[in-house]
Amino acid sequence: MLSSYAQKGIGFALPLIVAFLLSGVLLVIIGENPVKIYSMLVDESFGSSRRIAATLSASTPLLFTAVATAICFRSGAFNVGVEGAFLIGGLGAVFCGFFLPVQLGLSIIPIAIIFAGILGGIWLYFPGYLLAKFEVDEVVSTLMLNFIAIAITGYLINGPLLSPTSGNNVTPVIHDVAKLPRLMPPSTLHGGFILGLISVLIYGLWCNRSSSGFESALIGLNQRFSRAVGISVQKTLILVMVLSGIIGGIGGASHGLGQLYRFSDGFSPGYGFTGMAVALLARNSPIGIIAGSILFGALASAGTTIQLFSDIPLDLINIIQGTVMIFAVIEIARLSLRKKIRAEL
Amino acid sequence: MIFEQIIAAGMILTTPILLTAMGGLVNKQAGIVNIGLEGKMLSGAFAAVIISSFTGSWLLAVLGAAFIGAIIGLIFSFTITRAGANMIVAGLGLNVLLAGILGFVLNWSFNSSGTLRMPNVVLLPKVLPEEIQIIPIFGKVLAELDPLTIFAWLTVILLPFLLSNTKIGLWIRVTGNAEKVSHSVGIRFKNIQDFSTVVAGFFSGLGGAHLALFSIGLFNEGLTAGRGFIALAAFYFGRDRPVATALACLLFGFLDATQIRMQTIGLPPKLIGMIPYLMVLLALIISSIRKHQRTAK
Predict the structure, then answer these.
(1) How many domains does chain A have?
(2) Which of A66, A339, B26, B140 has the most CB atoms within 10 Å of its CB?
(3) Cβ-Cβ contacts under 8 Å, B109 against chain A
(4) Would B131 be classed as within a structural domain?
(5) How many independent structural domains does chain B possess?
(6) Minimal Cα–Cα distance from A344 to chain B, Å?
(7) Is ipTM over 0.95?
């Protein structure tokens, strides 16, 4: 028997190997040397402290969205609505950042973050409640809520919250005191990264050391059994959805207060979905989430610079991400394992 | 005059959603929720523009787009039915992957980012002579009528019959309703599901072709603008029934057509754009609550 660590390792490595093989083939087709490109990617993302900082900065939003996704996935709730919570929370935090009086000073930051968390939590409370009480399919409801979040934020930043000094689709810039500190200037790595790591840490402790974390994993494994031993499946489902929304919302706050300082169209280029790829790749494990976030952060940051210096289109990153998502859920690896176990019996 | 234009624009904007929704509906009836419709539409649009430019034939372009959609559908289906992938994640992944591949090809072989303009793209022909415009109210719609729109509405009319009176139609419905039963009566339900996903791909490809070849004749990365998801919303709202789904598509198409005009009277277009999604949410809630009450009794 393989240990669970080895199994997780294979689960992490396999989709990546397939993705890099596929994109490698594409690179060969367009006449590039994949080994050269990949080593260039590694160099661009980890070659110097400045590049490492850029990589970690790009991985920051993914830490949040991956944790938020994992919280639900391990309970068997297919929440694809982290993107929406991220947007709503982000706009809420940015709103606090420019609307609250400057005199509040540094306390604006915690207020904004808490406000974002509350907004995100409420946002996903609805589909959670509907799922728990009426078995409303959470995939479709959260998917629809994503589009609704895009529409609402898009409307607000074009209407009531539009910056008076600039053109379209953007809020005013937040006060200087509301900005999260930069950790390694001149890079954009900011305090949100620490917050993200803390979220992963708390998530790990919650999974392994708390009764609600244990119960929520149990309902993901077997709902009937959980019910039989007295776990409220309904309450747990609502809990994980709300927690997911809170983390997603705080992620938006970190991005708004630390990275962009304002909310504009395209605030999130799909962080919710990349976070989903990370959570799937990590099979919901905290260490895997950190590794996966840094990996995708590296791809994003190195991909942008590499596009400047070579003919490699940035879309290669999307190809890798899409392949990872598909192959992370394909059960070939597990199937062959199951067959082996059956053969042993 | 404005009225006529809205009807015409509404009909035109309905067609791509309608085609895609019909495919997705068949897929859903066989038990597969296809989140990858958006990516297949985009691929269809891309193929249509290129083939139309190279061959100068709209028919070949449309068939090529449908073929590309169907092939992608088949591969996608295999990941679900044979390799046990979760259909939701695989569908979302497929959208990301296809957008990546299209962007990559666009960037590398056509050296443009985002938009593909090709010479001599042949657009969809108009079926009826232009003089038909003089008919009041519906004249403009009739003058704009293209073969794909006719095909889409023919599908709406024929699909209920096909689903309830043909062998394959019944197999599809059995598979979707009770996979195990279909298996035990000897239906190869995996093959049926593959077939239905190919159908979904075929129709999404057609939908994409209509988007690209109705009037603009070029490809853009944002061409579909979430229409694959609107189609998903339509057949969820129509509860997988062809006629009800078609009516939902019509509604969404007209909302899209009036969106620009609403803006001029002060209604924010972004909020109008969210109506389809809100409607699905409401429909989903209502039907689930009803089902819940029934089982509670």
Answers:
(1) 1
(2) A66
(3) 30
(4) no
(5) 1
(6) 23
(7) no
